[in-house]
Write a structure and sequence with these properties.
Elements lengths: L2 H26 L3 E5 L4 E3 L3 E9 L12 E6 L5 E4 L9 E3 L7 E8 L3 E9 L7 E11 L25 H23 L5 H32 L1
Parallel strand pairs: 2-9
Antiparallel strand pairs: 1-3, 3-7, 4-6, 4-8, 5-7, 8-9
Helix pairs in contact: 2-3
């Protein structure tokens, strides 16, 4: 191969290497942080597996990111995050090279309510960058549901009818006795066919009258019922 050709080939290879290095450097410069796979509805104590990704201006994962991300929520300290190497009071994690800019975390809510989760990341180009996920509804895992059934009481009123047969019988007997006394007084005799006939006729009249009265009374009771 002529010397000029070898020189040209070397320059071409050097150019390609410089372009590749520039692309790697550009990819390493994360500009955004992203919360991924955050559940919108769950219960207290549930483990939610989420991811935090660092991306560059071309929306490519910054595989060389080694900065720190910090978690916070609108409810304060009502959640836990694992892993957490930020200490007891700070929920944070510092990326290592093996994380390749995309780290998984276990999120657990310890309080019921509707919350917003926010992550903040330090960037080599300045920052920080933040991302939030709102309207996360957390229900109480220990809540109990009480069902109340209203009882219905039905009252049935039965109308009672008073029968006055005894009173009517007593009245009839009294009338019969009175009538017999009147007949005896009129005929002047306690015995004899005439007295017996008179008593029978009067008694029959009284029976018919009593029957008529009872019938009228029964009709009146029926109308009242």
């Amino acid at each position: 191969m002529p010397r000029a050709a070898r020189v040209l080939l070397a320059l071409l290879l050097a150019t390609l290497l410089l372009l590749a290095a520039g692309r790697r450097a550009e990819a390493a410069a994360a500009t955004t942080v992203n919360l991924v796979d955050v559940s919108k509805s769950l219960k207290t104590g549930d483990v939610d597996s989420i991811f935090v990704q660092l991306r560059d201006g071309a929306n490519q994962t910054d595989t060389g990111y080694t900065g720190t991300v910090t978690f916070s929520a609108s409810c304060g300290s009502c959640f836990t995050i694992t892993p957490n190497n930020g200490g007891a009071s700070t929920k944070a994690y510092t990326y290592v090279a093996g994380d390749a800019g995309n780290k998984g975390f276990s999120l657990v809510w310890t309080q019921a309510g509707t919350f917003t989760l926010t992550v903040s990341a330090t960037l080599a180009t300045g920052g920080p960058a933040t991302d939030s996920e709102g309207d996360i509804v957390v229900s109480d895992a220990n809540a109990t549901t009480t069902t109340t059934t209203a009882a219905t009481t039905t009252t049935t009123t039965i109308a009672s009818t008073t029968t006055t047969t005894l009173a009517t019988t007593t009245t009839t007997a009294a009338a019969t006795t009175t009538t017999k006394a009147l007949v005896m007084a009129a005929t002047g005799s306690h015995d004899g066919p005439l007295a017996a006939l008179a008593v029978a006729l009067v008694f029959a009249g009284l029976v018919l009258t009593a029957g008529k009265l009872l019938g009228d009374q029964n009709d009146e009771w029926v109308e009242r019922l």
